[in-house]
Write a structure and sequence with these properties.
Length: 642
């Protein structure tokens, strides 16, 4: 009972006095007792001495059993009101019981005691007697109407809210546990099904936001001062909370995510594709077994890379959580990465070899385009078009490169590499051959009697082109001695330059000429423009411009790149070891001048004599290698003059 409801309790009790009296009378009448036989004479005699009460007792005694039953019902309703107020504090029950008791008592009282109006009873007593039901009904209704129900309701509601908060916390924890267990590994799966992962996370946040809203509603109810409003709001929150099913929500998100994940797996893992540097797909089916098959955790031990999507999709349906799928995806991704790394590693050397061959073929085409000689058409037929069935031309090399790429995409890496390297070697041979042929014009203009052929140039190329050389020049005959590796020229006017022959006497003449020049006292730095005085005391003579001997200089640089004698810092070439087309004054002086100006590549370039038996010596710049310096000088000369 509320501590502030004492007045209401007294009012209820006072209203019950006449009801209790009526109840006692009813019970005595129903069971056939009188006041005397019931031992109530000491109480009954003073009461019955009052005329109105005596007459009322007589009238009541003559009432029917139904009337007595109704009086009994009225007393029970009054007792129920008291219990609803003072014990269970149930407002609706108290109002109902009070209304029933008051209405019945009021109606029944006037109905039963109506005969008292005609009885010989003092009017004052009669009026007072008829006020009894009015006062009783008023007291009952007053008690229930003024009872402090708001405090009671608020107190009850507060207890209910505590229970709801505990239930809310339990459902939140249940959802978090179920979601985390089911959706383990979302970070990994985000790359496979990004939209599915996003929807799952958003769905979880929506559910948690719904719980947060309920929590906020509970907090708002706690601040209410109106008990009825608080109770209604509490009922609404309780109804809302009953619709919150954590496991059902997880199952719903799981169903949607499973569909998105299956679609992502089919897209991402439906077929294993690796493309080469050339944009073509590798035929991974030709890879070794340990590369084309992968073991999937929780699935099969050996699955072909083109069929992992089927295994992963099946795992999404059978696994207890997506953590197992994430582990399987990580294993597949790691294996795929290893396969890609293996392919890239094997691919790199093939691509380098193919690129080297293609660059050399481009160089070959540039050389031949710049070659303005009468036998140029034959050079094009042999070196580029490859029309001689016994000789490999640029077209054959390109076909070979196509085969190398085809073998590469078939994952036959060893075959691809050997084919590409062989093509690069053949392209290098074609370039060397073209460089040699490009110097013949200068050799013929200088009336050389022989030109040496580098050992790396196959005799077949020279044999195929020599007839075109003979046909291209009037008064010149050319013959190729494959055994000695030389092309011999004879002129109708017999004016061949003896300095360009293999005759020892001619070599001695050159030595004597060189000695005479060395005695002339002219220094290198004193040589006029367009002349050379290299060495000690050499006489100044005219030297051809770089544009006039482009092919010869390129040929020379190529020879120098093959290496000479010396240590790590200095390399030296004996002129008598160089091809005749290289060991000429015009070519060597231009090499010395151009390389000597590349201060970032060479510390010094020393041409002892522009004619055999001299030498040319290269000292690379500090920190540079002789191979790189010569190669870079070769490239720079080509870019500048071609």
């Amino acid at each position: 009972m509320s501590r502030t409801a004492h007045g209401q309790t007294i009012a209820w009790g006072a209203a019950g006095v006449p009801l209790v009296v009526a109840l006692v009378q009813t019970l005595l009448a129903l069971f056939g007792y009188t006041s005397g036989s019931a031992g109530l004479t000491p109480i009954a005699e003073p009461v019955l001495s009052i005329p109105v009460l005596f007459e009322a007792a007589v009238v009541f005694k003559d009432s029917s059993a139904v009337v007595m039953g109704l009086f009994l019902l009225i007393a029970l309703a009054w007792a129920a009101q008291g219990a609803a107020m003072l014990v269970v504090e149930h407002r609706e029950a108290a109002f109902g019981a009070a209304t029933l008791s008051a209405v019945l008592f009021f109606a029944l009282f006037f109905g039963v005691y109506a005969p008292l109006i005609s009885a010989d009873v003092p009017v004052a007593q009669l009026a007072a007697f008829y006020l009894v039901p009015v006062c009783a009904a008023a007291l009952q209704l007053f008690a229930v109407a003024t009872y402090p129900w708001n405090d009671v309701v608020l107190e009850e509601t507060s207890g209910d809210l505590g229970r709801l908060e505990a239930e809310l916390a339990n459902r939140r924890a249940a959802f978090d546990d179920a979601f985390d267990a089911q959706f383990e590994g979302l970070e990994t799966l985000a790359d496979v099904a990004p939209s599915g992962v996003r929807d799952a996370r958003e769905g979880a946040e929506e559910f948690r936001a719904r719980l947060d809203d309920i929590d906020e509603d509970i907090a708002a109810i706690r601040s209410m001062s109106d008990g009825e409003a608080a109770q209604a709001a509490r009922a609404s929150v309780e109804s809302e909370l009953e619709t919150v099913d954590p496991q059902a929500r997880v199952d719903e998100l799981d169903e949607r995510f499973q569909q998105a994940l299956a679609s992502g797996i089919r897209t991402e893992y439906g077929e294993f594709v690796v493309r080469s540097e050339y944009g073509e797909r590798y035929r991974a089916v030709n890879l070794p077994t340990n590369h084309r098959e992968v073991s999937i955790p929780g699935g099969a031990d050996a699955v072909h890379l083109d069929h992992v999507d089927e295994e992963l999709e099946a795992l999404t349906r059978s696994a207890d959580s997506y953590g197992a799928v994430a582990a399987a995806v990580e294993a597949v991704d790691a294996h795929r990465q290893r396969v890609r790394a293996h392919i890239r590693e094997r691919e790199a050397s093939v691509v380098d070899a193919v690129s080297t061959a293609e660059n050399r073929l481009d160089t070959l085409e540039t050389q031949i385009d710049a070659m303005d000689v009468p036998f140029g058409e034959r050079v094009d037929e042999v070196l580029l078009a490859g029309r001689d069935p016994d000789l490999v031309g640029a077209r054959d090399v390109r076909s070979q490169l196509d085969r190398a790429r085809e073998a590469l995409h078939d994952c036959r890496f060893d075959d691809a590499l050997s084919t590409a390297e062989d093509a690069a070697d053949r392209a290098a041979t074609l370039v060397t051959t073209a460089e040699l042929l490009s110097t013949l014009e200068a050799s013929l203009d200088a009336r050389h009697s022989t030109v040496s052929v580098p050992s790396e140039v196959p005799a077949g190329y020279i044999e195929a082109i020599v007839p075109a050389i003979r046909a291209g020049y009037d008064g010149v005959d050319a013959a190729f001695d494959a055994g000695r590796g030389r092309i011999a020229f004879t002129y109708d006017d017999a004016s061949a330059d003896p300095a360009a022959t293999d005759n020892p006497a001619a070599t001695a003449d050159r030595d004597d000429a060189g000695g005479a020049e060395r005695d002339s006292g002219q220094a290198v730095d004193d040589a006029p423009s367009g002349s050379v005085g290299t060495g000690s005391g050499r006489e100044s003579v005219r030297v051809a411009s770089p544009e006039e001997v482009v092919d010869g200089v390129l040929y020379a640089f190529r020879e120098f790149e093959t290496g000479g004698t010396g240590d790590d810092r200095i390399v030296q070439f004996r002129l008598e070891d160089l091809p005749d087309a290289v060991a000429t004054r015009d070519v060597l002086v231009n090499v010395e001048r151009f390389a000597g100006r590349q201060s970032d590549l060479f510390e010094s370039v020393d041409l002892q004599s522009p004619e055999p038996p001299g030498f040319i010596e290269f000292t690379p710049a500090e920190g540079a290698s002789i191979e790189r310096s010569l190669s870079e000088a070769h490239r720079r000369f080509r870019e500048k003059y071609t």
